[in-house]
Task: structure prediction
Amino acid sequence: MIEVLCSLELAQQLQFQGFENSNGSAKDIVSHSNSNLMLGLEFFGAGRFLPYTYHLMKCALNLKYSILSKRKTTDIRSLLFAEILTFFLSFLLIAIAPISASIPSYVPTDSISLDCSSSIFPSSVKMSSSPSEFKYDSSVVTRIYNIDSHIFQYQKTLPCIFRKQTTYTFTVSTGPKFIQLHFQPIKHEILDISKALFSVSVAGYTLLGTSKFSKHNLLVDYAIREFCIIIVGQVVNVTFTPSLHISESYAFVNKIEVVSMPSILYIKEDFPLPLVGYPSRGYYIQNSRALEMMHRVNMGGDSISPKEDTGMFRFWIEDAGYLTSDESSTRTIESEVAINFSSLMPAYTAPKKVNASARIVTTEGSFANWSFPVDSRFYYLVRLHFCDISGWTEANEGVFRISINNHAVEDHADVLHWSHGAGIPIYKDYIVNFSRHSEGIKHLSVAIGILNEPDDISGLAILNGLEIFKLSDLSNNLAGPYPFGTNDGHDQKFPRSSEYEDIKLVIALWSFMGFDMVLVLL
Result:
């Protein structure tokens, strides 16, 4: 604690010295200082209070700089006031940190679910036009989408079908939101799934562009697409637009969910992140960027259902399907120590189950390697979750290397040193640039391992969890070429059909084709 306070004070001194001595611009110096400040605040956390604490600290430090920079000679009163101000801010951090650490999960301000199976829409949702209507007899419908009995069951849902542009308007509070779109295609000769060609936009961002399910390459029975968007104002408009270039095209969705999220859970505008392959460059994610969740993985553990998440209904899957290295060189472990969330990382950042399991490497010269399909032409945020659950008790006993896309991002990773204690979760963020690649599916690789070098300390390589997000481009676009999957062997966004139980469905279709008929899907 004292060490971090000293680091904060050093950042302040560097800010003052930079203004006096640097030939660079004041804006650059302030930005650098604010980044150091955010790092210090991240250590203390302040949970959901962190944004307010951060801005208060920035204002107070600017005041301190103003006092110090204007002095021509030594002014005892000004110096005394500046030091009292610093002491007060340090005390504020110490006071708030235990409060944030005690918050077990996140309680969203907005949590709205629009289920097309229901005849009653939430009062906070309006729509520009009515979708084509599916009517069904619930007594004869058996429609359970089951990835695996120990993961979770999808609720019974029917799609809303749109033959023209349609907008749903959600009344919400201002701030960042998770937006989840659920898709369960109707597969039948009369309702041609290849005509499901449409785009989806939200708040000026293109989420899906000319997206379609292909009946020849369909790998999934159910797809969930998750996005993170900062909403300015009191409404979220979700617009579905069937293709204008294909006759009889249509759009559909089964469920739309809008859930609030902590303000700096993934985007910290003033905090530079390491750009993989360019160690001297930092990358800033601006609040104007939207994110698309590509992969969210629980390393070494079972899948975690949305109900088991920390209040934000995220879905974590197991890592075995992504592992490309020899599984015999790794093993999975469960926690040998208690998981203690602290102000370093609020409890809502990841479920306790993520931190209580891990995949490890213990043999020198061995690596664990994972490969994740991603769309080219975008930047990606890669978040690695760590928690020392192995029983190591001292720093430097678990030093290892971390590589992303064959670039070493950490040569001497030491989780215990980072977290300041066993069983205390922490994460590291990195940016990967695929924007210069030709259009198509690429693979983003992550590897951990112990180097066989004389100066390395033998130990243990560990990874507890991983999240990968696509960043919107400068045109506010997130649409990739294969939004509903490819023939790639694995893709979290699109669970494979073989993982589901058989679906037997009897639906009376009304009005979409313009006359009454019955579809029987087996």
